[in-house]
Amino acid sequence: MKTKQAVLLIIFAGLIFSCTSNKPKNKEIPPLSDELLSMPELYLVPRTNSIQEGLEHPEKAVKVTLYQSNLTAIPEDIVKLKKIQSLGLSWNNLNSLPGFISELPLLQSIHLSHNQFSKIPKTLIHIDNLQYLIISYNHIESIPKYIDQLYHLKSLNVSNNEIKILPKELFDLENLEVLVIKDNPIEEISKDVCKFKKLRVLDVRKTRVSSLPDCLFDIESLENVRIRYSRITDQQVNEWKKLRPDVKFE
User: Fold this and answer.
1) Does residue 151 share a domain with residue 34?
2) Which of the residues 24, 130, 174, 212 has the least number of beta carbons within 10 Å of its own beta carbon?
3) What is the per-residue pLDDT for 35?
4) Are 185 and 165 in contact (CB under 8 A)?
5) How much is the pLDDT for 202?
6) In a domain, 164, yes or no
7) For the chain, which residues score pLDDT lower than 50?
């Protein structure tokens, strides 16, 4: 009896392996670890993965992702997709954004990670309602002064770049809720960070930051401070926990 059961199990396992191994392999899309911070209300909305697919069903092209498409320029046909709210252009070879990107009236979120940008494109200031910007894993050395013209920005991710200083104009973004600056050679967070009255998440992991202003912990909306592999000590964290036991440190 046991021998019969063992044979059946082997046959069943073989059938499973056969079924799974015959499935067509889809093109792998690298995950964005911070995607939930970018347009969380659209996280479960199905992706449109090509311009052609979008043109065939323009009413469904709300979240368009052109990841790993070997793009050196954005196809102009994209302006025909007027329903786009979230545009994913990560894992390409882009180093600039065309002016016509501002012709997408509902665009609120744009992902530009893993490209060839050496600066944050000024074109972005013409996207009237831009709220979420991910431009990590590029070659950006500084945040431009015109960053303060992204009036509606809620989430900014500039991680894994070469930024050393945060300009004072950054702290004029009064709607900013999430600031991710991890893995940059930044050494200091100035007291201007306390101007962020809506800040929920501050990520300084893998930076050279050795302290944070105490006034940061007066921001009532603050929920999460990510400090791992920075130069902040456990002693400092323990003191901050006394000030804000409701804030998560990681």
Assistant:
1) yes
2) 24
3) 53
4) no
5) 97
6) no
7) 1-33
